[in-house]
Write a structure and sequence with these properties.
mainly alpha; about 85% helix; about 0% strand
Length: about 475
């Protein structure tokens, strides 16, 4: 075990990649947390409404995550052999898909505004507040999509600092604008929930503009003539779609399943959804360090596999598979011990019901108990399997555990057995995370997730298997 982690090169690379990404996501989560905290001063209806619209935006982000993950598979492996031309063409394809998704969600939000809110809750006050917020905040969707895909491209070529700096800028700007526009400070008109939406739109687009301007100055991978990005062959497009489709289906269907959970909980009462909104804010923060770690592992494993260093990729996957569960257990303990203090932050204006705060604290215990299992599965599906080229297996495991087990169990619990809200919330995690960790663990040990997309990686895999036959390596990889 000591020998496994006694590698200064591993730690240096992992920290160089993980820390900036973790900081970027801390800032991004702070962006969302600022909205939630400030809106909580407007009461439970406003908090619940913003939380519901946040889930609609989150569904869009889950589809985008699918394209971002597929982009990482290709770019990290092509980065291993420094094929800049292919990196830019893959980037162009990714940008096109990101724009299509964000334009679609923006259009639906504008045309069916109240219908989107009504999915979660039929309370007239919630529909009114949610519609007011969605009509404005949807204009940030395209900016969010562009920022996500451009940041993914940069991280995949180990350029992680610029996305972090952009997130820092947009977070500070959003907090300032939130406070100013919601409450009418520094010469701004008092806009309430509308102010939160306008602040999000302005800060999101400012981030995109600044990212492009700095990229021009740096002359990084994002800067080249449009034809180098958007003139790609049919074969390249087909290969991308073949790899991306399972990932997009995975993230989209997983997002849709979670979306249905939120509909179930939203219709059990907006007070409960307020509790979920509070939990989600801390869930995002707890998740931060693991996004950084998984981003680092994706690049490191993908780069090794793409450049033909198969054993190095396997070793790095093993290291991360130890690191993530240990850190997840530590994080879970902190969440449980300090749950009441964390939840109380949202009651600064004394406008949140005690029942909502108590429920949020209980939900935090449930989430913390599931957290280590969830993070191990997340690492395997999103980082290890995908970055090594296997974008299909994770789909099966995610969809089986969610759609065939967790969702039916929760529906039966709520609508047939009539269990309390907290019990239903626990059932969701039990029936999703336990089956998934068993499936992921077995497949990880098989090593069948190694499927290079580069010719160098494919040749190295053949050589690796031939050495296994000769008794010079571990198990054969089919």
């Amino acid at each position: 075990m000591t020998k496994l982690f006694n590698d200064k090169g591993f730690w240096k690379t992992a920290m160089t990649l993980a820390v900036p990404v973790a900081l970027q996501n801390l800032l991004t989560s702070s962006f969302t947390l600022a909205d939630t905290l400030l809106v909580s001063n407007l009461g439970s209806v406003a908090l619940s409404s913003v939380g519901m619209i946040g889930q609609w935006a989150w569904l869009m982000n889950m589809v985008l995550v699918g394209f971002c993950s597929a982009t990482t598979v290709f770019i990290s492996q092509y980065w291993g052999i420094k094929d800049i031309k292919k990196i830019r063409r893959i980037s162009g394809i990714s940008i096109v898909f990101a724009l299509i998704v964000s334009v679609l969600f923006t259009t639906v939000s504008l045309v069916f505004t109240s219908g989107v809110v009504r999915i979660f809750n039929s309370d007239p006050a919630v529909i009114s507040a949610g519609s007011e917020y969605l009509k404005l905040v949807c204009f940030s969707f395209i900016a969010v999509a562009l920022t996500n895909i451009l940041a993914t491209i940069l991280r995949s070529v180990e350029s992680v600092r610029l996305p972090m700096y952009i997130s820092g800028f947009t977070t500070v700007l959003n907090i300032f604008l939130d406070y100013s526009m919601i409450f009418g400070k520094f010469g701004f008109a008092e806009m309430g929930i509308k102010g939160a939406a306008v602040a999000t739109v302005i800060s999101s687009w400012s981030g995109v503009i600044l990212l492009v301007l700095i990229s021009i100055i740096q002359k990084n991978i994002l800067i080249a003539s449009p034809k180098k990005f958007f003139i790609f062959s049919k074969e390249e497009f087909k290969i991308y779609v073949k790899k991306a489709t399972p990932v997009v289906i995975n993230e989209g269907m997983w997002g849709a399943g979670t979306f249905i959970f939120n509909i179930i909980y939203g219709n059990m009462g907006y007070e409960y959804f307020s509790a979920i909104t509070i939990l989600r804010s801390f869930e995002n923060i707890a998740f931060i360090i693991f996004i950084g770690i998984c981003s680092a592992s994706s690049v490191m494993i993908g780069k090794s596999i793409g450049s033909g260093k198969i054993e190095r990729g396997i070793t790095d996957a093993k290291r991360f598979s130890y690191i993530v569960p240990v850190l997840a257990v530590i994080t879970a303990i902190i969440m449980i011990v300090f749950r009441n203090q964390l939840v109380s932050i949202f009651n600064m204006g004394s406008n949140i019901a005690e029942g909502t705060l108590h429920t949020a604290a209980v939900l935090m215990i449930i989430y913390a108990c599931a957290f280590p299992l969830r993070m191990f599965s997340y690492l395997q599906v999103v980082s290890v399997f995908r970055s090594a080229g296997d974008t299909v297996t994770g789909v099966k495991y995610d969809l089986i555990s969610l759609w065939a087990m967790s969702l039916p169990a929760t529906l039966i619990a709520v609508y047939v057995l009539k269990v309390p809200f907290v019990a239903a919330f626990a059932i969701m995690y039990i029936f999703e995370d336990i089956p998934k960790i068993i499936l992921c663990g077995k497949f990880y040990l098989s090593k069948r997730w190694i499927k290079p997309v580069t010719e160098e990686g494919k040749d190295a895999l053949k050589k690796y298997n031939s050495e296994i036959i000769k008794g010079k390596a571990g198990d054969k990889i089919d």
